[in-house]
Amino acid sequence: MQSVALIDYGSGNLRSAEKALARIAEGTAEIVVTHDPDLIAKADRVVLPGVGAFASCMAGLQARAGVIEAMEAAVHGRGVPFLGICVGMQLLASRGLEFGETPGLGWIPGEVRKLEPADPAIKIPHMGWNALSDVADHPLFAPFRNGEAVYFTHSFAFFPSDPADVMAYAEHGDRFPAAVARGNVAGVQFHPEKSQKPGLALLKRFLEWRP
C-alpha cells in the first residue's frame, strides 16, 4: 500500500484534507499526517495543505526541523508526486508579497501577490464557487471541464513566471491561476476537499498519477 505524507505544520485545513484523502483512498493508500522527516522522505506521495498568510505558513514550515529537506528528498530526489493546496500551492513560488517579501520554496518560479479587482464592488477575500477556464491537457486537470466550478477562499494568488506552468485559470474581477504543475509537482489554489465531487475526483487522480 502506498503512503501519502500529509504535511502537518500548523495549517488550518489539515483535518479536512486528511478526511477527503482517506475517503477516496479506499484502502489503496495510507494517509499519514506527519512532520516526521523520515516518514516524509520515504513517502510515496506528498501533500502540502495550507490556510492563512504566506509569511506565517512559510515560517511554520521552516519551524518543523528537517521537513523542507525531507520534502525535497522525496519530491526532487526520488521524484514522488506532490500536491500543494491553497497556500500549500502558493509556497511553491519564488516569493510571496504578503506583509512584505518572503522567500518561498522556489520549486516553480513566480510570485504570490494580492488579488486587486478593478471593480471595487468585488470583495476580497475571494470566497465561494468559481468556474475553471483554459484547462490544460494534463493528467490531473484535463478531466475538468471548462466552466466546472470549484471552491476558493483566498486573497492572494500565485502567478508563475512561465505561463506554461499554469494548468487552469479562474476569475474574480481579474483572471488568476487556479492550478499549476511542473514535472511531478502540482498545486491548486482552490480547496479540493471542499469542492465536492470535482475535488474528490482530483484527489483520486492524484493518488493514481504517475508523472
TrEMBL record:
Pathway membership, UniProt: Amino-acid biosynthesis; L-histidine biosynthesis; L-histidine from 5-phospho-alpha-D-ribose 1-diphosphate: step 5/9
Active site: C86, H191, E193
SUPFAM superfamilies reported for this sequence: Class I glutamine amidotransferase-like
Domain Glutamine amidotransferase: 6-206
InterPro entries referenced in this protein's UniProt entry, alphabetically: Class_I_gatase-like, GATASE, Imidazole-glycPsynth_HisH
PROSITE patterns cross-referenced by the UniProt entry: GATASE_TYPE_1 (PS51273)
CC annotations in GO: cytoplasm
UniProt-listed Enzyme Commission number(s): 4.3.2.10, 3.5.1.2
GO terms, biological process: L-histidine biosynthetic process
GO molecular function list: glutaminase activity; imidazoleglycerol-phosphate synthase activity; lyase activity
Chief location category: cytoplasm
Subcellular compartments: Cytoplasm
Keyword tags: Amino-acid biosynthesis, Cytoplasm, Glutamine amidotransferase, Histidine biosynthesis, Hydrolase, Lyase
Superkingdom of origin: Bacteria
Catalytic activity from the UniProt record: L-glutamine + H2O = L-glutamate + NH4(+); 5-[(5-phospho-1-deoxy-D-ribulos-1-ylimino)methylamino]-1-(5-phospho-beta-D-ribosyl)imidazole-4-carboxamide + L-glutamine = D-erythro-1-(imidazol-4-yl)glycerol 3-phosphate + 5-amino-1-(5-phospho-beta-D-ribosyl)imidazole-4-carboxamide + L-glutamate + H(+)
Function in brief: IGPS catalyzes the conversion of PRFAR and glutamine to IGP, AICAR and glutamate. The HisH subunit catalyzes the hydrolysis of glutamine to glutamate and ammonia as part of the synthesis of IGP and AICAR. The resulting ammonia molecule is channeled to the active site of HisF.
Record's subunit section: Heterodimer of HisH and HisF.
The protein, known as: Imidazole glycerol phosphate synthase subunit HisH
Organism name: Phenylobacterium soli
Phylogenetic lineage: Bacteria, Pseudomonadati, Pseudomonadota, Alphaproteobacteria, Caulobacterales
